[in-house]
Amino acid sequence: WCALSYVWGGDQPVKTTKGSLADHHQGIALDRLPQALRDAVQVCRGLGVLYIWIDALCIVQDDVGDLRRELSHMAEIYQHAIATISAASSTKADDGFLFRRGHWYHECPPIHLQALTESGQRVAAFAYERRLWENDSINWRAWTYQERMLSPRVLAYRNTVLEWNCRTRVDSYGLLEPTTLLRTLKATPDSPHSFSSTSWSDVVAEYSLRKLTFEADKLCALSAIARIYHRETGKTYLAGIWKEDLPLALCWIPARHSGSPVVPRPAGYRAPSWSWASLE
């Protein structure tokens, strides 16, 4: 199967609930789906893959038991997918991602150049003023962080480029960078990402920059990575930090944006005050 990573951007018009479950077992008309989901089905078919996992359809959204059960399998869903299709450029499910990219710019138009690969092959490329695709909506949503980190292969439809990521290669089409950037990893291409050698503080620093629609999801949206980290290290999880890393794990500080002296707090209780998850 393929898995889909995308930004909901609000409630979904087509989702599986207790009331629609029986009908969805019979089939879901493609033209009923939001455009990003339709595009994902088209990509999946183009890859010759029979199945696709989409959270809005594969989880019964109003069944707490099913939600809890499926979230506990989130790591396996993304780790063992043939590829994760990332609708990186879509700000909501209604936004499609199969479109001609063009060349976006703010000040300086892209420059068309001829470049040589290491093998001496001449290729056409463009030089951009800056990496516009870093601002893709998917980079700022909390739930999509673990989907990206858990996936062994990601096909990302970004604003300006089509990007392929796996354990050993990053390949982007439409850049003035080497066609293929080889990573110095000991892992085999199909091996799952190992978090035991990852700095948990780096995970928190990157993840905590991302936004959530529901404040209470802060730890839940990181739970799949935490589960794997526990499995690999044997450490004890304590509301976003690890018991074995104490007291150093308490030495975090909140980032204050726009010079504001006030750090936002969630409306209700979410985590103990000694955890970074207690603040925004």
What does this entry look like structurally?
InterPro entries: HET (IPR010730). The chain is of the alpha/beta class and 280 residues long. Helices cover 22% and strands 16% of the residues. It starts with a strand and ends in a 38-residue tail after the last strand.
Question: What's the arrangement of secondary structure elements?
Answer:
Blueprint: E1 2-5, H1 21-26, H2 35-46, E2 52-53, H3 55-58, H4 64-71, H5 74-79, E3 83-86, E4 111-116, E5 122-127, H6 143-150, E6 153-157, E7 162-166, E8 169-173, E9 180-182, H7 200-207, H8 223-233, E10 237-238, E11 241-242
Parallel strand pairs: 1-2, 1-3, 3-6
Antiparallel strand pairs: 4-5, 6-7, 7-8, 8-9, 10-11
Short note summarizing the structure:
It holds the Pfam family HET. Helix content is 22%, strand content 16%.
Structural category? alpha/beta
Counting copies of identical and different chains, the oligomeric state is single chain
Order of helices and strands: EHHEHHHEEEHEEEEHHEE
The largest sheet, given as strand count, sense and whether it forms a barrel, is: 7 strands, mixed
Average pLDDT metric? 84
Q: What low-confidence regions span 5 or more consecutive residues with pLDDT below 50?
A: 176-186
How far the N terminus sits from the C terminus, by CA atoms, comes to 35 Å
As a percent range, the share of strand residues is 15-25%
The count of helical stretches stands at 8
Shape: globular
Helix content: 10-25%
What's the gyration radius in Å?
Answer: 20 Å
Strand count:
11
Strand sequence of the main sheet, in spatial order?
A: 2-1-3-6-7-8-9
InterPro entries: HET (IPR010730)
Protein name: Heterokaryon incompatibility protein-domain-containing protein
Pfam families: HET
Organism: Schizothecium vesticola
